[in-house]
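User: quick one - fold this with flavin mononucleotide bound?
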Amino acid sequence: MVRYSRLPFRALCRKFNVDVCFSPMLISDSFINSASARDADLRSNAEDGPLVVQFAANKGEDFAKVAQMLYGHCEGIDLNCGCPQRWVNALNYGDILMKQPELLADIVLQARRAIPDSEFSISVKTRVFDDLHTTIEMARRIEKAGATMLSIHGRTHGERDHPVRIETISTIVETLSIPVNYNGSIRTREDAQLAYESTGVGGVMVARGLLHNPGLFDDRRLGDPEVLTEWTKIALELGIPYSSYHKHLMYMLDKVTTRPETRVFNSLQSMLQAVSWLRERNYIYC
Ligand SMILES: Cc1cc2nc3c(=O)[nH]c(=O)nc-3n(C[C@H](O)[C@H](O)[C@H](O)COP(=O)(O)O)c2cc1C
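Assistant: Sure. Structure tokens for the protein plus flavin mononucleotide:
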């Protein structure tokens, strides 16, 4: 998740049963050409695995180059063909690639050729088309190009909070041999279990559900004090900016605090203020 699934948040999710973390989407071109962009965007450490680093790419050479740069440093790279945002599509990144199946396949193929070691995962994330046949053709093509995993956000380009197309995901699972991940509107561990059982997917990918409840896969409730305490410890250990610590807590406390509490919490200006406020109300233990 852009701005959110950075090292500290990944460390928190890993403490509470998340198996594999994805980095925020990085722009392949900037990653290749700018050392400062690499340092700013991709902080990691020895405990930060399994890690998949996700990219926006629109050229096979770029995706192959980032594969070479990251081989041996993480478990895999992912091509984001699920992002529908206008500025992303304007650069020929994101889900606009779903409409260019030859280019999409070539991007995957070039990275796979650059790193033939199948232990290094080269995966893709897509949305779905309205038409099942077109979706299946795209998924087949991605597998044929050498992808090791496919994550499906079960909505079309134009859909936001529409129901996830569970049948389409099931059909993709039945058709492909590689692991397929389910994505979309998972809020609880039960939701994840149901998605897993009803489609036979290899994994369940969660974004907003984890922002609100990083303990979701550990059956924690929203606002669990152990989760909030762990977040505070990680923030202090890794030295993250206050704005990032606070923004994550706004998500984690969103459905937990009363309205007047939320107003006060949102106005706090420093780590010291926030930690004292949380401690006084028993939201954290440390
Ligand atoms: C703040 C935010 C940032 C996101 N950034 C990314 C990203 O970098 N890469 C990506 O593939 N999807 C990104 N997404 C989309 C999610 O991965 C996911 O496909 C979508 O939110 C639906 O899943 P969910 O219901 O679990 O949130 C982002 C979503 C949010 C809310």
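One thing worth noting: Strands lie at 21-22, 26-27, 51-56, 76-81, 121-126, 149-153, 180-183, 203-205.
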